[in-house]
Amino acid sequence: MSTVFRLDASIKPEGSVSRAVSETLENAIVAELGGDVTVTTRSIGLNPLPSDAWATAAFAGYVPAEQRTDEQNAAVALATELADELASADVAIIGAPFYNWGVTQHLKTWFDLVLTDGRFGPGAEQPAGAGKSAFLVIARGGGYGEGTPRFGWDHATAWLKRVLEDVWGYEVTVIEAELTLAETTPAMAELVDLARKNLADAHAAAERHGKAVASKIAA
Ligand SMILES: Cc1cc2nc3c(=O)[nH]c(=O)nc-3n(C[C@H](O)[C@H](O)[C@H](O)COP(=O)(O)O)c2cc1C
User: Where is FMN annotated to bind (predicted)?
Assistant: First the structure.
């Protein structure tokens, strides 16, 4: 039995692009594995993690376990639970909406908490994601490619990839949908066709990568 971990960080209850593309990826994996798979999900945009838990868990690391407060024990237990969910999965899907040019606070809190766990900390003997695949599913409202006015303004993707790849050791695939605001923003009307193509390409990539990674973990 294989396990997929899926993290959704969109704050939209309906119409999230990162969630929709992640869904395509998850469905492709599940279909290819013939249902012989467990999917663990966490929706941190709609059910946020407590933003103060990270500092509490981080400082609890300097306190002997038997001397920790109830608050420190709860924060460490939460970090352990999150790290367990990720560590026990063969494949990780990280849905990353792009808000305010950077990593969303919800996603940052999740990474910060997982990083307090010894298996995922910078000092881990072996990167916990070594030999495993992680997918970064990114949705951006605007366009940030080379030659566009906002080129260089995406301050999220490189950081997310850095941690997944270089700290945790995953083999990372980035699947991106851009211009997601074109359909609802009059000033972006001339970009609608491009946005639709972008979205279709993202779903197609998710389908393709889902099948490929399922074959890999089933082998
Ligand atoms: C509060 C907020 C801030 C946003 N900031 C940006 C931004 O800085 N740049 C951008 O291109 N799009 C921005 N967007 C648009 C989102 O990137 C877009 O809606 C994307 O589809 C989000 O992923 P989701 O659909 O999975 O929620 C923002 C959206 C919201 C709600």
Answer: 10, 16-18
